[in-house]
Amino acid sequence: MERRTFGWRFRFLAYTAVAAGSVLAASARQRQVTVVTPLDGEKWWGGILHRGWEMPYGNTPRPIDLGLEGGVTAPFLVSSAGRYVWSDRPFVYAFTNDVLTVASDVEKVEPIVAGTTLRDAYLAASAKHFPFNGRTPAELLFAKPQWNNWIEIAIQGMRQTSVDAYTEALARSGFPCGVYIMDGGWLSHNGSYRFHAPDFPDPRGMFRRIREKGWKAMIWTAAFVSPDCREYKLLRHGKGYMIDGKDVLAYDKARPGRHAGVVWWWSGISCVWDLTYAPGWDDYAQTLRRFAAEYGIDGFKWDAGDVGPMARTLRFHDPAKRAVDWAHDYVRVGAELFPYNEYRVGFRTGGMPVMQRLPDVHHRWEAIRRVSGMVQAAGLLGSPYVVADMVGGGEATTYRPGGFFSEKLFVRSCALAALHPMMQFSAAPWRYLSPGNVEICRAFANLHVEFAPYILDLARHAARTGEPIVRTMEYEFPHAGFAKPMTQFMLGPKWLVAPVTAEDDAVTVELPTGRWTDDLGTVHVGPKTLTLTHVPLGRLPRYARTETEK
Q1: What's the pTM?
Q2: With contact defined as beta carbons under 8 Å apart, do 487 and 540 qualify?
Protein backbone atom coordinates (compact mmCIF):
# COMPACT_ATOMS: atom_id res chain seq x y z
CA MET A 1 0.00 0.00 0.00
CA GLU A 2 2.77 2.39 0.92
CA ARG A 3 4.65 1.56 -2.24
CA ARG A 4 1.57 2.25 -4.36
CA THR A 5 0.95 5.57 -2.63
CA PHE A 6 4.58 6.63 -3.10
CA GLY A 7 4.45 5.72 -6.75
CA TRP A 8 1.24 7.69 -7.23
CA ARG A 9 2.81 10.65 -5.46
CA PHE A 10 5.75 10.56 -7.85
CA ARG A 11 3.45 10.41 -10.86
CA PHE A 12 1.41 13.27 -9.41
CA LEU A 13 4.45 15.53 -9.21
CA ALA A 14 5.61 14.54 -12.67
CA TYR A 15 2.18 15.20 -14.15
CA THR A 16 1.80 18.61 -12.58
CA ALA A 17 5.26 19.62 -13.70
CA VAL A 18 4.52 18.70 -17.31
CA ALA A 19 1.03 20.20 -17.26
CA ALA A 20 2.14 23.51 -15.77
CA GLY A 21 5.15 24.01 -18.02
CA SER A 22 8.82 24.68 -17.46
CA VAL A 23 8.37 27.15 -14.59
CA LEU A 24 6.73 24.52 -12.39
CA ALA A 25 8.96 21.80 -13.71
CA ALA A 26 11.95 23.62 -12.26
CA SER A 27 10.38 23.77 -8.82
CA ALA A 28 8.58 20.43 -8.73
CA ARG A 29 11.34 18.79 -6.70
CA GLN A 30 10.92 21.48 -4.02
CA ARG A 31 7.25 20.81 -3.53
CA GLN A 32 6.06 19.46 -0.24
CA VAL A 33 3.53 16.69 -0.71
CA THR A 34 0.85 15.50 1.69
CA VAL A 35 -1.22 12.36 1.16
CA VAL A 36 -4.49 12.37 3.12
CA THR A 37 -6.13 8.98 3.58
CA PRO A 38 -9.92 9.29 3.92
CA LEU A 39 -11.67 8.56 7.18
CA ASP A 40 -14.66 6.24 7.10
CA GLY A 41 -17.11 7.64 4.52
CA GLU A 42 -15.25 10.96 4.27
CA LYS A 43 -15.86 13.16 1.22
CA TRP A 44 -14.34 16.51 0.21
CA TRP A 45 -15.52 19.75 -1.39
CA GLY A 46 -13.75 22.98 -2.36
CA GLY A 47 -10.81 24.32 -4.34
CA ILE A 48 -12.48 25.54 -7.52
CA LEU A 49 -16.01 26.74 -8.18
CA HIS A 50 -16.50 25.56 -11.74
CA ARG A 51 -15.77 21.96 -10.74
CA GLY A 52 -18.63 22.09 -8.23
CA TRP A 53 -20.72 19.61 -10.18
CA GLU A 54 -18.03 16.97 -9.49
CA MET A 55 -18.24 17.49 -5.73
CA PRO A 56 -17.82 15.80 -3.46
CA TYR A 57 -14.68 14.51 -5.11
CA GLY A 58 -13.92 10.86 -5.69
CA ASN A 59 -11.48 11.06 -8.55
CA THR A 60 -10.12 14.01 -10.49
CA PRO A 61 -9.15 13.37 -14.11
CA ARG A 62 -6.05 15.52 -13.61
CA PRO A 63 -4.36 17.42 -10.78
CA ILE A 64 -5.86 20.85 -10.18
CA ASP A 65 -3.31 23.67 -9.93
CA LEU A 66 -4.96 26.60 -8.14
CA GLY A 67 -2.18 28.88 -9.34
CA LEU A 68 -3.26 28.42 -12.94
CA GLU A 69 -6.99 27.74 -12.86
CA GLY A 70 -9.55 30.31 -14.03
CA GLY A 71 -12.76 31.33 -12.36
CA VAL A 72 -13.19 31.38 -8.59
CA THR A 73 -10.64 29.43 -6.56
CA ALA A 74 -9.54 29.11 -2.96
CA PRO A 75 -6.69 27.10 -1.36
CA PHE A 76 -9.31 25.42 0.77
CA LEU A 77 -10.79 21.93 0.90
CA VAL A 78 -13.39 20.85 3.44
CA SER A 79 -14.66 17.39 4.39
CA SER A 80 -17.80 15.71 5.65
CA ALA A 81 -15.77 14.29 8.56
CA GLY A 82 -15.03 17.69 10.08
CA ARG A 83 -11.57 18.22 8.57
CA TYR A 84 -10.27 20.96 6.31
CA VAL A 85 -7.14 21.87 4.39
CA TRP A 86 -6.07 25.52 4.08
CA SER A 87 -3.10 27.49 2.79
CA ASP A 88 -2.68 31.19 2.12
CA ARG A 89 -0.99 30.33 -1.19
CA PRO A 90 -2.21 28.25 -4.13
CA PHE A 91 -1.50 24.54 -4.10
CA VAL A 92 -2.02 21.58 -6.42
CA TYR A 93 -4.39 18.79 -5.45
CA ALA A 94 -5.90 15.62 -6.82
CA PHE A 95 -8.15 12.77 -5.70
CA THR A 96 -7.71 9.10 -6.56
CA ASN A 97 -10.23 6.70 -5.05
CA ASP A 98 -11.04 9.29 -2.36
CA VAL A 99 -7.35 9.66 -1.41
CA LEU A 100 -6.37 13.36 -1.41
CA THR A 101 -2.87 14.44 -2.44
CA VAL A 102 -1.81 18.06 -1.93
CA ALA A 103 1.44 19.60 -3.20
CA SER A 104 2.60 23.06 -2.12
CA ASP A 105 5.61 25.18 -3.07
CA VAL A 106 5.64 27.01 0.27
CA GLU A 107 4.62 24.64 3.07
CA LYS A 108 3.52 21.18 4.01
CA VAL A 109 -0.25 21.38 4.00
CA GLU A 110 -1.82 19.21 6.68
CA PRO A 111 -5.50 18.53 7.37
CA ILE A 112 -6.95 20.29 10.41
CA VAL A 113 -9.57 18.59 12.59
CA ALA A 114 -12.33 21.08 13.48
CA GLY A 115 -15.21 18.80 14.45
CA THR A 116 -17.10 15.86 13.05
CA THR A 117 -19.26 17.34 10.26
CA LEU A 118 -19.00 19.39 7.08
CA ARG A 119 -20.65 22.28 8.86
CA ASP A 120 -18.19 22.12 11.77
CA ALA A 121 -15.20 22.24 9.45
CA TYR A 122 -16.54 24.94 7.15
CA LEU A 123 -17.57 27.34 9.94
CA ALA A 124 -14.27 26.87 11.78
CA ALA A 125 -12.26 27.54 8.63
CA SER A 126 -14.40 30.53 7.69
CA ALA A 127 -14.03 32.14 11.12
CA LYS A 128 -10.26 31.71 11.05
CA HIS A 129 -9.26 32.20 7.42
CA PHE A 130 -11.96 34.18 5.60
CA PRO A 131 -14.18 35.88 8.19
CA PHE A 132 -17.25 37.73 6.96
CA ASN A 133 -17.58 41.44 7.77
CA GLY A 134 -21.35 41.84 8.17
CA ARG A 135 -21.81 43.36 4.70
CA THR A 136 -23.66 41.91 1.72
CA PRO A 137 -23.79 43.12 -1.87
CA ALA A 138 -26.63 45.56 -2.51
CA GLU A 139 -29.86 43.96 -1.28
CA LEU A 140 -31.71 44.81 -4.48
CA LEU A 141 -29.50 42.25 -6.24
CA PHE A 142 -31.27 39.58 -4.17
CA ALA A 143 -34.75 41.11 -4.03
CA LYS A 144 -35.58 41.17 -7.74
CA PRO A 145 -34.24 39.55 -10.90
CA GLN A 146 -31.45 41.27 -12.75
CA TRP A 147 -31.55 41.83 -16.50
CA ASN A 148 -28.34 41.70 -18.51
CA ASN A 149 -28.51 42.73 -22.15
CA TRP A 150 -25.69 40.43 -23.37
CA ILE A 151 -27.85 38.13 -25.51
CA GLU A 152 -29.88 40.97 -26.94
CA ILE A 153 -26.84 43.01 -27.96
CA ALA A 154 -25.19 39.93 -29.45
CA ILE A 155 -28.22 39.66 -31.73
CA GLN A 156 -29.14 43.33 -32.26
CA GLY A 157 -25.81 45.09 -31.66
CA MET A 158 -24.66 47.29 -28.79
CA ARG A 159 -25.97 50.78 -29.41
CA GLN A 160 -28.16 53.25 -27.59
CA THR A 161 -31.20 52.46 -29.70
CA SER A 162 -31.03 48.73 -28.87
CA VAL A 163 -30.54 49.45 -25.16
CA ASP A 164 -33.56 51.76 -25.16
CA ALA A 165 -35.65 49.22 -27.08
CA TYR A 166 -34.77 46.41 -24.67
CA THR A 167 -35.46 48.45 -21.52
CA GLU A 168 -38.76 49.73 -22.91
CA ALA A 169 -39.87 46.19 -23.81
CA LEU A 170 -38.83 44.96 -20.37
CA ALA A 171 -40.82 47.74 -18.68
CA ARG A 172 -43.93 46.68 -20.63
CA SER A 173 -43.41 42.95 -20.12
CA GLY A 174 -44.71 42.67 -16.56
CA PHE A 175 -41.51 40.94 -15.43
CA PRO A 176 -39.97 42.29 -12.22
CA CYS A 177 -36.61 44.02 -12.55
CA GLY A 178 -34.31 45.41 -9.90
CA VAL A 179 -31.03 46.02 -11.72
CA TYR A 180 -30.32 46.49 -15.41
CA ILE A 181 -26.83 45.36 -16.45
CA MET A 182 -25.33 46.74 -19.63
CA ASP A 183 -22.80 44.30 -21.04
CA GLY A 184 -19.68 44.87 -23.15
CA GLY A 185 -19.22 46.60 -26.48
CA TRP A 186 -20.11 50.14 -25.34
CA LEU A 187 -16.63 51.62 -24.92
CA SER A 188 -14.45 53.02 -27.66
CA HIS A 189 -11.58 50.74 -26.57
CA ASN A 190 -10.46 48.98 -23.42
CA GLY A 191 -9.25 51.42 -20.80
CA SER A 192 -10.99 54.45 -22.32
CA TYR A 193 -14.11 54.71 -20.15
CA ARG A 194 -15.71 56.68 -22.94
CA PHE A 195 -18.77 55.55 -24.85
CA HIS A 196 -18.35 54.88 -28.54
CA ALA A 197 -19.83 58.20 -29.67
CA PRO A 198 -21.50 57.18 -32.98
CA ASP A 199 -23.47 54.45 -31.20
CA PHE A 200 -24.18 56.36 -27.97
CA PRO A 201 -25.03 60.00 -28.70
CA ASP A 202 -26.59 60.58 -25.23
CA PRO A 203 -25.42 58.00 -22.64
CA ARG A 204 -26.41 60.22 -19.70
CA GLY A 205 -29.96 60.38 -21.01
CA MET A 206 -29.95 56.62 -21.54
CA PHE A 207 -29.04 55.94 -17.90
CA ARG A 208 -31.47 58.62 -16.69
CA ARG A 209 -34.30 56.78 -18.45
CA ILE A 210 -33.23 53.52 -16.77
CA ARG A 211 -33.31 55.17 -13.33
CA GLU A 212 -36.71 56.70 -14.08
CA LYS A 213 -38.06 53.17 -14.45
CA GLY A 214 -37.08 52.55 -10.81
CA TRP A 215 -34.09 50.34 -11.62
CA LYS A 216 -30.44 50.52 -10.69
CA ALA A 217 -27.83 50.33 -13.44
CA MET A 218 -24.59 48.39 -13.76
CA ILE A 219 -22.19 48.29 -16.69
CA TRP A 220 -19.53 45.92 -18.01
CA THR A 221 -15.85 46.56 -17.37
CA ALA A 222 -12.48 44.82 -17.12
CA ALA A 223 -9.11 46.02 -15.84
CA PHE A 224 -7.56 46.01 -19.30
CA VAL A 225 -6.03 48.73 -21.47
CA SER A 226 -5.61 48.61 -25.24
CA PRO A 227 -1.92 49.04 -26.20
CA ASP A 228 -0.93 52.29 -27.90
CA CYS A 229 -4.11 54.16 -27.03
CA ARG A 230 -3.99 57.50 -25.25
CA GLU A 231 -4.81 55.90 -21.91
CA TYR A 232 -1.95 53.44 -22.29
CA LYS A 233 0.49 56.27 -22.84
CA LEU A 234 -0.81 58.11 -19.80
CA LEU A 235 -0.62 55.04 -17.59
CA ARG A 236 2.93 54.40 -18.75
CA HIS A 237 4.36 57.91 -18.93
CA GLY A 238 1.75 60.59 -18.36
CA LYS A 239 1.32 63.38 -15.87
CA GLY A 240 0.35 62.34 -12.40
CA TYR A 241 0.71 58.63 -13.10
CA MET A 242 4.40 58.15 -12.42
CA ILE A 243 4.54 57.09 -8.80
CA ASP A 244 8.06 56.73 -7.39
CA GLY A 245 9.32 56.52 -10.95
CA LYS A 246 7.06 53.57 -11.78
CA ASP A 247 4.08 53.13 -14.01
CA VAL A 248 0.91 51.31 -12.92
CA LEU A 249 0.71 48.56 -15.54
CA ALA A 250 1.86 44.97 -15.09
CA TYR A 251 5.13 44.05 -16.78
CA ASP A 252 6.09 41.59 -19.49
CA LYS A 253 7.25 38.33 -17.90
CA ALA A 254 9.54 37.45 -20.78
CA ARG A 255 11.41 40.77 -21.02
CA PRO A 256 13.61 42.40 -18.38
CA GLY A 257 13.00 45.99 -17.32
CA ARG A 258 9.78 47.96 -17.46
CA HIS A 259 8.15 46.61 -20.57
CA ALA A 260 4.38 46.49 -20.28
CA GLY A 261 2.98 43.00 -20.60
CA VAL A 262 0.04 42.01 -22.78
CA VAL A 263 -2.61 39.37 -22.17
CA TRP A 264 -4.34 37.47 -24.94
CA TRP A 265 -7.99 37.09 -23.93
CA TRP A 266 -11.32 36.64 -25.63
CA SER A 267 -11.68 40.35 -26.39
CA GLY A 268 -8.24 40.76 -27.97
CA ILE A 269 -4.83 41.81 -26.68
CA SER A 270 -4.55 44.14 -23.70
CA CYS A 271 -2.24 45.54 -21.08
CA VAL A 272 -3.37 45.27 -17.47
CA TRP A 273 -3.48 47.60 -14.47
CA ASP A 274 -1.20 46.13 -11.81
CA LEU A 275 -3.81 45.80 -9.07
CA THR A 276 -1.32 44.18 -6.70
CA TYR A 277 0.53 47.54 -6.62
CA ALA A 278 -1.26 50.05 -4.36
CA PRO A 279 -0.90 53.04 -6.73
CA GLY A 280 -2.19 50.91 -9.61
CA TRP A 281 -5.17 49.71 -7.58
CA ASP A 282 -5.95 53.26 -6.46
CA ASP A 283 -5.73 54.63 -9.99
CA TYR A 284 -8.05 51.95 -11.36
CA ALA A 285 -10.52 52.44 -8.51
CA GLN A 286 -10.57 56.22 -8.97
CA THR A 287 -11.07 55.79 -12.74
CA LEU A 288 -14.19 53.71 -12.09
CA ARG A 289 -15.47 56.09 -9.42
CA ARG A 290 -15.20 59.10 -11.75
CA PHE A 291 -16.85 57.24 -14.62
CA ALA A 292 -19.76 56.00 -12.47
CA ALA A 293 -20.37 59.48 -11.04
CA GLU A 294 -20.27 61.09 -14.48
CA TYR A 295 -22.99 58.88 -15.97
CA GLY A 296 -25.10 57.96 -12.96
CA ILE A 297 -24.05 54.29 -12.86
CA ASP A 298 -24.46 52.32 -9.65
CA GLY A 299 -21.86 49.61 -10.15
CA PHE A 300 -20.06 47.26 -12.48
CA LYS A 301 -20.00 43.81 -13.97
CA TRP A 302 -16.31 42.96 -13.76
CA ASP A 303 -15.50 40.47 -16.48
CA ALA A 304 -12.50 38.31 -17.40
CA GLY A 305 -9.38 38.31 -15.22
CA ASP A 306 -8.78 34.56 -15.33
CA VAL A 307 -5.50 33.62 -13.73
CA GLY A 308 -4.08 31.32 -16.40
CA PRO A 309 -3.28 33.88 -19.16
CA MET A 310 -1.85 36.33 -16.63
CA ALA A 311 0.29 33.71 -14.92
CA ARG A 312 1.88 32.86 -18.25
CA THR A 313 2.64 36.39 -19.44
CA LEU A 314 2.75 38.95 -16.59
CA ARG A 315 5.02 39.92 -13.73
CA PHE A 316 4.22 42.58 -11.17
CA HIS A 317 5.90 45.50 -9.41
CA ASP A 318 6.43 43.23 -6.42
CA PRO A 319 8.22 40.12 -7.75
CA ALA A 320 6.67 38.01 -4.98
CA LYS A 321 3.16 38.68 -6.31
CA ARG A 322 1.43 36.16 -8.58
CA ALA A 323 -1.57 36.24 -10.87
CA VAL A 324 -3.73 34.85 -8.05
CA ASP A 325 -2.89 37.95 -5.99
CA TRP A 326 -4.05 40.09 -8.90
CA ALA A 327 -7.36 38.20 -9.00
CA HIS A 328 -7.79 38.73 -5.26
CA ASP A 329 -7.18 42.48 -5.54
CA TYR A 330 -9.43 42.72 -8.59
CA VAL A 331 -12.37 41.55 -6.49
CA ARG A 332 -11.46 43.96 -3.69
CA VAL A 333 -12.42 46.90 -5.95
CA GLY A 334 -16.07 45.89 -6.00
CA ALA A 335 -16.08 44.56 -2.45
CA GLU A 336 -14.77 47.81 -1.00
CA LEU A 337 -16.20 50.48 -3.30
CA PHE A 338 -19.31 49.28 -5.18
CA PRO A 339 -22.14 47.34 -3.47
CA TYR A 340 -23.58 46.76 -6.94
CA ASN A 341 -20.98 44.36 -8.31
CA GLU A 342 -20.55 41.11 -10.18
CA TYR A 343 -17.45 38.93 -10.70
CA ARG A 344 -16.70 35.65 -12.44
CA VAL A 345 -13.15 35.28 -11.04
CA GLY A 346 -11.41 35.49 -7.70
CA PHE A 347 -8.81 33.90 -5.47
CA ARG A 348 -9.21 33.58 -1.72
CA THR A 349 -12.18 35.97 -1.79
CA GLY A 350 -14.35 34.11 0.72
CA GLY A 351 -16.21 36.48 3.02
CA MET A 352 -16.14 39.42 0.61
CA PRO A 353 -19.50 41.11 -0.10
CA VAL A 354 -19.55 40.40 -3.84
CA MET A 355 -22.03 38.86 -6.25
CA GLN A 356 -20.20 35.83 -7.60
CA ARG A 357 -21.27 34.65 -11.04
CA LEU A 358 -20.90 31.07 -12.17
CA PRO A 359 -18.96 30.27 -15.35
CA ASP A 360 -20.72 30.61 -18.69
CA VAL A 361 -23.50 28.03 -19.01
CA HIS A 362 -24.31 26.62 -22.43
CA HIS A 363 -27.82 25.92 -23.66
CA ARG A 364 -27.63 22.17 -23.08
CA TRP A 365 -29.28 19.80 -20.63
CA GLU A 366 -25.92 18.59 -19.37
CA ALA A 367 -24.91 22.19 -18.65
CA ILE A 368 -27.96 23.10 -16.57
CA ARG A 369 -27.62 19.86 -14.60
CA ARG A 370 -24.20 21.08 -13.50
CA VAL A 371 -25.44 24.46 -12.26
CA SER A 372 -26.86 23.21 -8.97
CA GLY A 373 -23.57 21.61 -7.92
CA MET A 374 -21.66 24.80 -8.66
CA VAL A 375 -24.10 26.93 -6.65
CA GLN A 376 -23.65 24.56 -3.71
CA ALA A 377 -19.86 24.66 -4.11
CA ALA A 378 -19.88 28.46 -4.02
CA GLY A 379 -21.24 28.45 -0.50
CA LEU A 380 -18.50 26.08 0.64
CA LEU A 381 -15.84 28.39 -0.83
CA GLY A 382 -17.13 31.34 1.20
CA SER A 383 -19.07 32.89 -1.71
CA PRO A 384 -22.74 32.59 -0.67
CA TYR A 385 -23.96 35.58 -2.77
CA VAL A 386 -24.00 33.61 -5.99
CA VAL A 387 -25.79 34.02 -9.30
CA ALA A 388 -25.91 31.43 -12.04
CA ASP A 389 -25.25 32.44 -15.62
CA MET A 390 -28.21 33.95 -17.47
CA VAL A 391 -31.52 32.08 -17.61
CA GLY A 392 -31.39 29.78 -20.61
CA GLY A 393 -27.60 30.06 -20.83
CA GLY A 394 -25.33 32.83 -21.99
CA GLU A 395 -24.29 31.36 -25.34
CA ALA A 396 -25.37 33.89 -27.98
CA THR A 397 -25.27 31.40 -30.88
CA THR A 398 -28.24 29.63 -29.25
CA TYR A 399 -30.48 32.52 -30.15
CA ARG A 400 -29.32 33.00 -33.73
CA PRO A 401 -30.99 31.28 -36.68
CA GLY A 402 -29.78 27.70 -36.94
CA GLY A 403 -28.72 27.39 -33.31
CA PHE A 404 -30.14 24.73 -31.02
CA PHE A 405 -32.88 26.20 -28.86
CA SER A 406 -35.33 24.41 -26.57
CA GLU A 407 -38.22 26.24 -24.93
CA LYS A 408 -38.45 23.47 -22.37
CA LEU A 409 -34.77 23.86 -21.43
CA PHE A 410 -35.17 27.63 -21.14
CA VAL A 411 -38.14 27.28 -18.79
CA ARG A 412 -36.41 24.62 -16.64
CA SER A 413 -33.38 26.90 -16.42
CA CYS A 414 -35.68 29.70 -15.26
CA ALA A 415 -37.16 27.45 -12.56
CA LEU A 416 -33.67 26.40 -11.44
CA ALA A 417 -32.63 30.03 -10.96
CA ALA A 418 -35.82 31.13 -9.21
CA LEU A 419 -34.72 29.92 -5.77
CA HIS A 420 -31.07 30.75 -6.04
CA PRO A 421 -29.81 33.72 -4.01
CA MET A 422 -29.93 35.82 -7.19
CA MET A 423 -31.66 35.43 -10.54
CA GLN A 424 -30.51 36.92 -13.84
CA PHE A 425 -32.16 37.07 -17.28
CA SER A 426 -30.68 38.11 -20.59
CA ALA A 427 -32.54 36.64 -23.57
CA ALA A 428 -35.95 38.28 -23.58
CA PRO A 429 -38.55 35.54 -22.95
CA TRP A 430 -41.18 37.37 -24.97
CA ARG A 431 -38.95 37.14 -28.06
CA TYR A 432 -38.16 33.43 -27.89
CA LEU A 433 -41.00 31.64 -26.09
CA SER A 434 -44.63 30.87 -26.71
CA PRO A 435 -47.09 33.04 -24.75
CA GLY A 436 -47.77 30.17 -22.33
CA ASN A 437 -44.11 29.66 -21.55
CA VAL A 438 -43.61 33.41 -21.16
CA GLU A 439 -46.28 33.29 -18.44
CA ILE A 440 -44.51 30.41 -16.72
CA CYS A 441 -41.21 32.29 -16.69
CA ARG A 442 -42.94 35.40 -15.36
CA ALA A 443 -44.39 33.26 -12.55
CA PHE A 444 -40.93 31.94 -11.66
CA ALA A 445 -39.53 35.49 -11.64
CA ASN A 446 -42.33 36.46 -9.25
CA LEU A 447 -41.59 33.35 -7.16
CA HIS A 448 -38.09 34.72 -6.64
CA VAL A 449 -39.59 38.02 -5.49
CA GLU A 450 -41.93 36.11 -3.16
CA PHE A 451 -38.98 34.33 -1.54
CA ALA A 452 -36.85 37.49 -1.41
CA PRO A 453 -37.51 38.29 2.30
CA TYR A 454 -36.40 34.79 3.26
CA ILE A 455 -33.37 34.95 0.94
CA LEU A 456 -32.39 38.36 2.29
CA ASP A 457 -32.59 37.04 5.86
CA LEU A 458 -30.25 34.23 4.81
CA ALA A 459 -27.90 36.72 3.12
CA ARG A 460 -27.71 38.85 6.26
CA HIS A 461 -27.13 35.71 8.32
CA ALA A 462 -24.33 34.72 5.94
CA ALA A 463 -22.75 38.15 6.33
CA ARG A 464 -22.60 37.67 10.11
CA THR A 465 -21.68 33.99 10.30
CA GLY A 466 -20.35 32.86 6.90
CA GLU A 467 -23.06 30.21 6.69
CA PRO A 468 -24.06 29.39 3.08
CA ILE A 469 -27.40 30.50 1.67
CA VAL A 470 -27.64 27.47 -0.63
CA ARG A 471 -26.46 24.41 1.27
CA THR A 472 -25.54 20.91 0.29
CA MET A 473 -27.71 18.22 1.81
CA GLU A 474 -24.68 16.90 3.70
CA TYR A 475 -24.14 20.32 5.31
CA GLU A 476 -27.66 20.40 6.72
CA PHE A 477 -28.09 16.64 7.36
CA PRO A 478 -24.67 15.22 8.24
CA HIS A 479 -23.89 11.52 8.02
CA ALA A 480 -27.34 10.66 6.67
CA GLY A 481 -26.28 9.38 3.25
CA PHE A 482 -26.13 12.74 1.42
CA ALA A 483 -22.35 13.01 0.90
CA LYS A 484 -22.65 12.58 -2.87
CA PRO A 485 -23.27 14.79 -5.92
CA MET A 486 -26.90 15.95 -5.85
CA THR A 487 -28.90 18.48 -7.85
CA GLN A 488 -31.32 18.98 -4.96
CA PHE A 489 -30.25 21.47 -2.33
CA MET A 490 -31.32 23.24 0.82
CA LEU A 491 -32.21 26.94 0.64
CA GLY A 492 -31.33 27.81 4.21
CA PRO A 493 -32.51 25.39 6.91
CA LYS A 494 -36.16 25.26 5.82
CA TRP A 495 -36.59 24.63 2.10
CA LEU A 496 -35.48 21.60 0.13
CA VAL A 497 -35.47 22.46 -3.60
CA ALA A 498 -35.42 19.71 -6.23
CA PRO A 499 -35.20 21.32 -9.70
CA VAL A 500 -35.97 19.31 -12.81
CA THR A 501 -32.86 19.30 -14.99
CA ALA A 502 -33.61 16.37 -17.29
CA GLU A 503 -35.34 16.44 -20.65
CA ASP A 504 -37.65 13.60 -19.61
CA ASP A 505 -39.35 15.85 -16.99
CA ALA A 506 -38.44 13.52 -14.12
CA VAL A 507 -36.59 14.08 -10.85
CA THR A 508 -35.80 11.90 -7.85
CA VAL A 509 -36.13 13.56 -4.44
CA GLU A 510 -34.48 12.23 -1.30
CA LEU A 511 -36.25 13.54 1.80
CA PRO A 512 -34.39 13.42 5.12
CA THR A 513 -36.00 12.44 8.40
CA GLY A 514 -38.87 14.71 9.44
CA ARG A 515 -42.14 16.09 8.08
CA TRP A 516 -42.05 17.90 4.73
CA THR A 517 -44.84 19.80 2.98
CA ASP A 518 -44.42 20.13 -0.78
CA ASP A 519 -45.45 22.95 -3.08
CA LEU A 520 -48.74 21.16 -3.82
CA GLY A 521 -49.67 20.96 -0.13
CA THR A 522 -48.94 17.25 0.32
CA VAL A 523 -47.24 16.20 3.56
CA HIS A 524 -44.45 13.61 3.41
CA VAL A 525 -42.71 11.87 6.30
CA GLY A 526 -39.05 11.15 5.78
CA PRO A 527 -36.72 9.53 5.31
CA LYS A 528 -38.30 8.87 1.96
CA THR A 529 -37.37 8.76 -1.70
CA LEU A 530 -39.84 10.23 -4.19
CA THR A 531 -39.68 9.58 -7.91
CA LEU A 532 -41.51 12.37 -9.73
CA THR A 533 -42.36 11.78 -13.38
CA HIS A 534 -43.92 14.10 -15.93
CA VAL A 535 -43.33 17.17 -13.76
CA PRO A 536 -45.18 20.06 -15.46
CA LEU A 537 -43.08 22.91 -16.80
CA GLY A 538 -44.73 25.30 -14.39
CA ARG A 539 -43.69 23.34 -11.29
CA LEU A 540 -40.51 23.68 -9.26
CA PRO A 541 -40.66 20.85 -6.68
CA ARG A 542 -39.90 22.21 -3.21
CA TYR A 543 -40.48 20.97 0.30
CA ALA A 544 -40.83 22.98 3.49
CA ARG A 545 -39.41 21.36 6.60
CA THR A 546 -42.30 21.53 9.06
CA GLU A 547 -41.03 19.16 11.73
CA THR A 548 -37.68 17.64 12.56
CA GLU A 549 -36.86 14.35 14.26
CA LYS A 550 -37.10 14.62 18.03
Answers
A1: 0.93
A2: no
